[in-house]
């Protein structure tokens, strides 16, 4: 029986990493759901959306916050920049553990009053770290944070083994958004972020075990 990783990347020796990236994509969907629905129309992973929101806010549209999106962009960029500076000397496992720590901190801070800005910073930093560290894995069509290129490739390219990766990536993001939206409505944002943290902890545990 093929492993999940082999099914995603037939013919390529990647171990369990592709399956772990699928879980990280679910985490992204949950976290962006919480940030958009609970923190005032801001994304912590989808920077394209934030750039558009800044344009809306400057044009006078009142729904997007003029401070939240720039804060998320700056925090995401800082996380990606720091990861890029040390990527060659630090393992993907370590980056995932750091991201887990930031996510757990966000869950704890979320309970406090007026904590939206701090939560945005923590979540966007983590997503910047995740996005930059995943780039260094070299696995195509599994960025875990953006799907525009993945969706374009799915419909524009000739059918092939990449179709599986692209479909799974899109389905994972959708699943995360569905979970995040449901928990936001019925259990609260802290519960949604806790589920994301549990998933990230599971990925971290697998990576630590494999690297041990």
TrEMBL record:
Keyword Metal-binding set for record: no
Domain of life, per lineage: Bacteria
| Pfam families registered for this protein in UniProt | DUF1275 (PF06912)
For this UniProt record, the keywords arranged alphabetically read as follows: Membrane, Transmembrane, Transmembrane helix
**Is Transmembrane given among the entry's keywords?**
yes
Listed transmembrane segments: 21-45, 65-83, 90-111, 117-134, 167-185, 191-210
Q: What is this protein called?
A: Uncharacterized membrane protein YoaK (UPF0700 family)
Q: What is the originating organism of this protein?
A: Nonomuraea endophytica
